[in-house]
Design brief:
Length: about 325
């Protein structure tokens, strides 16, 4: 009696194990092994993709709210309304704190955005603010917020033409009047101001080394331009170095769109091939187990935790 019960228990255990393995393999073929294995084990955990979808939706909403707050702040600053600007500044700051920036940008981007917001806040609460710096700081935060909300076509990309025009003006001034001329220094100042305006947005949209390379080029140019007597050899290489670094900040116009990897699993042909191999292996293992059971009689039960029924000797 006990032997028959042991056979059924053994068969039931093996059937459950086999079902778990088959469901897990099916999950691998469908491209979602984690969910399939959880279902095979009878897990009641929620689908992780559902949680990530909710997080993504809430993250997008927070980014849009932050962008909208930055837009209203920019408008109030342009209007010169300090009281409204202070109210909008508080709203923008709350929107920034609500952002989930993990996966959206780098640590350097988060730090740059934080510094831009802090700088704008200092201008707003200042007793005697510099109105030009006030407007510039508001535009900087606005471009940064837009870069997060519209990563495909952010507004700061439009500054390519502005930056190239500044480089052209600087090049002409250097060739005609030299680096120590007022015209050349004014052209470089305009270039520097426009780069500083988009720098936070650049860090939020690209790899940190892109902005670091532009920073290095601008720092080198600043030293050359501020020298009492500019070296002709240094000024000759200045425009190529700046052009290479600053054009690298913007995406290539001729660049092909990035092909995204589909979220679905492998193609049917590939799945069918893997499925055939799996079925063949399971069939072979099952046949070997069947031959082993036929030659040895009752399948051996696991030794760990097993307890032989004393009545088994009466069944012999």
């Amino acid at each position: 009696m006990s032997v028959l019960l042991d056979k059924r228990q053994y068969s039931s255990v093996k059937w459950r194990e086999g079902r778990i393995v088959l469901l897990a393999l099916l999950g691998l073929l469908l491209g979602n092994p984690v969910v399939a294995w959880g279902d095979a084990q009878g897990s009641i955990d929620a689908d992780p993709t559902a949680t990530s979808g909710i997080s993504s939706a809430s993250g997008d909403s927070a980014v849009r709210s932050f962008r909208d707050a930055a837009e209203l702040l920019y408008k109030s600053v342009q209007d010169g309304d300090k009281l409204e600007s202070l109210r909008r500044m508080q709203q923008t700051e709350r929107g920034f704190l609500a952002l989930r920036l993990e996966g959206l940008t780098s640590v350097e981007g988060v730090q740059a955005l934080s510094n831009s917001i802090a700088g704008l806040k200092r201008q707003i609460v200042s007793v005697s603010p510099d109105h030009q710096r006030w407007k510039t700081a508001a535009a900087e935060v606005r471009l940064a917020a837009d870069a997060l909300a519209n990563p495909g076509e952010p507004m700061w990309h439009r500054y390519r033409a502005v930056v190239l025009d500044d480089l052209n003006s600087l090049d002409k001034a250097l060739k005609s009047e030299g680096a120590s001329s007022l015209r050349a220094r004014s052209a470089f100042q305009a270039l520097n101001n426009h780069y500083r305006l988009i720098r936070t947005a650049v860090l939020l949209s690209t790899e940190p080394f892109v902005a670091e390379r532009a920073d290095s080029a601008m720092a080198y140019a600043s030293r050359v331009m501020s020298a009492a007597k500019a070296d002709a050899k240094l000024t000759d290489n200045l425009i190529p170095a700046l052009t290479n670094a600053l054009e690298g900040v913007f995406p290539n116009k001729d660049e092909e769109p990035t092909v995204s990897v589909p979220a679905s699993g492998p193609t049917w042909g590939w799945s069918a091939m893997i499925g055939s191999i799996v079925v063949a292996m399971l069939t072979w293992v099952g046949w070997r187990r069947y031959r082993s059971d036929m030659s040895t009689g009752v399948p051996a039960l696991p030794k760990r935790g097993s307890r032989r029924d004393p009545a088994d000797r009466w069944m012999k």
